[in-house]
Specification:
This protein has 580 residues and is an alpha/beta fold. Helix content is 37%, strand content 12%.
């Protein structure tokens, strides 16, 4: 019995589904392109070879196959449905493999008819759901990838800015100012290259002109300002204008001296020193212009030992003087400064050399005929009970001078004047010393200045060679109102002084000294009939003249350590007269 084959007629799709399908396809055209791309000779085409049959596919194979859309205009023959088959397996009909001419397919596409699965025909609704599900999966995958890309960023720790203090603001402002003055700021950010070159040219040109004007103005100001001979604040003589000579100009000494002259005679020099000192104090420095701010209100100069060669040269000059005058009893007293005696009051780790070691070196270099007097041990015994030095000045007090006088008499075997024969009198309670002015910031409280006045008031005559004055005292009370009240002793430093007393003795003393000796003279006059005082820093004569003209028997070289270490005037102690 022959079976009639019925041709499958595709049911017509409702308009509502067509609209939904068209919308879905248009929204995802990439899916259509991927689905319609199909190589020739694949499935869904009939095999024309007679008698060829395909083996029935399993359920897994049938369910795993996905329907792909094909051209809407090309009609393909569908396999007939065997309605009488009771089994769930559907045998696949063989299709002829006769080659078909390739036809140009239009660009418009539509999905092909669904193949029956498990005896049931797929509808277009399932196709629409599948398309929507694929689109939804793609959206979810895209969102998942975006979430994965967005990794959680670690929160940056916000650093709390430290509040800048006033000093940091000032330093930063000064830095910006000098950066703008000398570098013009960061001109690359806001100035073109051509304009930058023009600005740089003008800036350096103007800077050169201004610098030259400043030099000319300062030179004129120095020449117009009267020269000062002594700096009380620095306790030294200032450089005077050197005389020009071709020989000095050639060897360079004139240029060096003139540079020192310009520096020492600079207009308003003390004001500049004070400004610098205040800046140093603001930055917390304990050493200002060579002055240490110490405990208990003391101001102290530091000490830096000179090189061995310089020290030996000075001691050789002293030894030569002693050997040249063998009849004279020569003593040498180098007074330690308060930086050695009160070194426990210095700031921690202050770079100060030991004056005790320096004095040992001097004593070792001294000739055997020299009576070398070291005061360190005697001062250390009384330093806590007596104020041996002024707090704001570099000199010792009358108490310190009297302690040294006792040591001197002990060394020479003389009877010292008793302290009970003196009256300790307050001369002033507003004594601001040299270190007060030298530090520039004028730090420190005023000292009390006492004088030892003898009750018997032994008569004496003091002659000053430089001023040609004769007075019956060693004190000048008018100096108490001046800037340096220490000048109350002998009226300050002089080139040569002769003091005559009524002491019944043949001893005559030659005192070669610095300013420390001025406050010791009121005690020495009790042991000598005559004292000739020479300050080699100002004296232009010779020791030979003084010794021969005054019948000198004793010589005392009295300096403080700092002056002997830095001053070279002791080298002229052996100078000869021009006539010899």
């Amino acid at each position: 019995m022959s079976k009639k084959r019925k041709k499958y007629v595709e049911p017509e799709m409702p308009d509502s589904l067509k609209k939904l399908l068209d919308l879905d396809v248009e929204s995802d055209p990439s899916y259509i392109r991927k689905a319609t791309k199909k190589p020739a000779g694949t499935a869904n085409r009939p095999n024309n070879k007679a008698g060829s049959k395909k083996k029935p596919n399993s359920k897994k194979q049938q369910s795993s196959k996905k329907q792909r859309p094909s051209s809407s205009k090309t009609k393909k023959k569908q396999q007939p449905i065997n309605t009488k088959a009771k089994s769930s397996k559907k045998p696949s009909q063989a299709r002829p493999t006769q080659a078909r001419p390739s036809q140009a397919r239009p660009s418009q596409t539509r999905p092909t008819q669904a193949r029956p699965v498990n005896g049931k025909q797929r509808t277009y609704g399932s196709r629409l759901e599948q398309t929507q599900r694929i689109s939804k999966d793609k959206i979810e995958n895209a969102q998942r990838k975006q979430v994965q890309k967005k990794k959680p960023q670690k929160k940056k720790k916000v650093r709390k800015r430290k509040s800048a203090n006033f000093l940091q603001i000032i330093i930063y402002s000064i830095t910006l100012f000098f950066n703008f003055i000398f570098r013009g700021g960061d001109k690359k950010k806001y100035v073109k290259e051509e304009r930058k070159r023009v600005l740089d040219y003008r800036f350096y040109r103007n800077l050169t002109i201004v610098s030259m004007l400043v030099i000319v103005v300062m030179t004129v100001a120095v020449m117009a300002t009267p020269s000062q001979k002594v700096s009380v604040a620095e306790n030294r003589e200032l450089q005077q204008k050197p005389k020009f000579s071709m020989s000095k100009f050639v060897d360079g000494s004139y240029s060096k001296d003139y540079a020192k002259y310009m520096s020492d005679q600079f207009p308003k020099r003390s004001s500049f020193i004070k400004t610098k000192a205040n800046m140093d104090m603001m930055f917390g420095k304990k050493e200002i212009n060579g002055v240490y701010v110490c405990k208990d209100g003391y101001l102290m100069e530091g000490f830096k030992k000179a090189d061995q060669e310089t020290t030996k040269e000075k001691m050789d000059a002293v030894n030569t003087f002693v050997t040249s005058n063998p009849k004279l009893k020569t003593s040498m007293m180098i007074v330690p400064n308060k930086v050695e005696i009160y070194n426990n009051l210095l700031p921690a780790n202050a770079p100060v050399d030991s004056q005790a070691e320096y004095l040992k070196e001097l004593s070792a270099m001294a000739d055997n005929k020299i009576r070398f007097i070291n005061l360190i041990d005697d001062f250390n015994k009384v330093k806590n009970s007596e104020q041996l030095y002024f707090k704001t000045d570099h000199h010792w007090t009358s108490d310190g001078a009297y302690t040294a006088y006792l040591s001197y008499c002990k060394k020479l075997g003389m009877e010292p004047a008793s302290e009970s024969t003196f009256t300790k009198t307050l001369a002033t309670d507003k004594f601001y010393g040299s270190l007060y002015y030298k530090n520039g910031a004028q730090i420190g409280s005023p000292d009390d200045l006492y004088l030892y006045v003898q009750e018997a008031n032994n008569p004496l005559i003091t002659k000053y060679y430089d001023t040609k004055k004769k007075v019956p005292t060693l004190y000048d009370p008018s100096k108490l109102e001046g800037r340096d009240p220490y000048e109350v002793f002998t009226g300050g430093n002089h080139t040569q002084i002769k003091i005559r007393t009524n002491v019944d003795t043949d001893k005559k003393l030659l005192l070669v000294k610095d300013s420390y000796a001025n406050s010791m003279l009121p005690f020495l006059v009790n042991n000598y009939a005559e004292i000739n005082v020479i300050d080699l820093r100002y004296y232009t004569g010779t020791m030979e003249e003084v010794i021969n003209n005054n019948d000198i028997t004793d010589v005392l070289l009295l300096y403080n350590v700092n002056t002997f270490n830095t001053d070279a005037s002791i080298l002229s102690i052996n100078s000869k007269s021009k006539t010899s």
